[in-house]
Amino acid sequence: MSLEVFQSYLQGIIDRDWDQVTATLAAGVHREGYDGPQDSTDGRDNYIQFLDRVMTPIEGFGYDVHRIASTENGKVGLIEVTSRYVENGEELGYRMAYVITVDDNDLIDNIEIYWKTPTKRLSVDTVYDRTAG
């Protein structure tokens, strides 16, 4: 079941559907971002407020999904994406990986996000050639 939870979580982020994301999260979820303490949150409501504040205003936001996988017992998931956005009229992106765990109720209780590309944000075509299939 957890693979479906990971997929629902990701689709909610892509669609900016915070109700859908909320339905996948444990009340005490912890998010550890790649940019230090200011990029981390504790608690479902705080995380949803963080997502809304940070992601809603992003112009041209989207994810190219590379992989969604889970362990055999479904307790740990991996999501790899290219995050896309527009800055100064140019479409940019960077690769990210999410490592997610679920509790005994199949709700996400921990999210760790890793930045996979260099510190310089690259054009989307440099990060991921979408024509390659």
Question: Could you explain the architecture of this structure?
Answer:
- The protein has 133 residues and is of the alpha+beta class.
- The protein has one domain: Nuclear Transport Factor 2, Chain: A.
- It contains four helices and seven strands, in the order ααββαβββββα.
- Strands 1, 2, 3, 4, 5, 6 and 7 form a seven-stranded mixed sheet that branches.
- The longest helix has 14 residues, at 2-15.
- The radius of gyration is 15 Å and the shape is globular.
Q: How many domain units?
A: 1
Can you give the mean pLDDT? 86
Ranges where pLDDT stays below 50 over 5 or more residues in a row are 127-133
Task: Quote the CATH topology.
Answer: Nuclear Transport Factor 2, Chain: A
Radius of gyration: 15 Å
- Strand/helix succession: HHEEHEEEEEH
CATH A-level architecture: Roll
Q: Roughly how many Å apart are the termini?
A: 27 Å
- Shape call: globular
What level of helicity do the residues show?
Answer: 25-40%
Query: Main beta sheet: strand number and arrangement?
Result: 7 strands, mixed
Q: Please work out how many helical segments DSSP would assign.
A: 4
Q: Beta-strand level of the residues, as a percent range?
A: 35-45%
**Total number of β-strand segments?**
7
| Structural class by secondary-structure content | alpha+beta
The CATH top-level class label = Alpha Beta
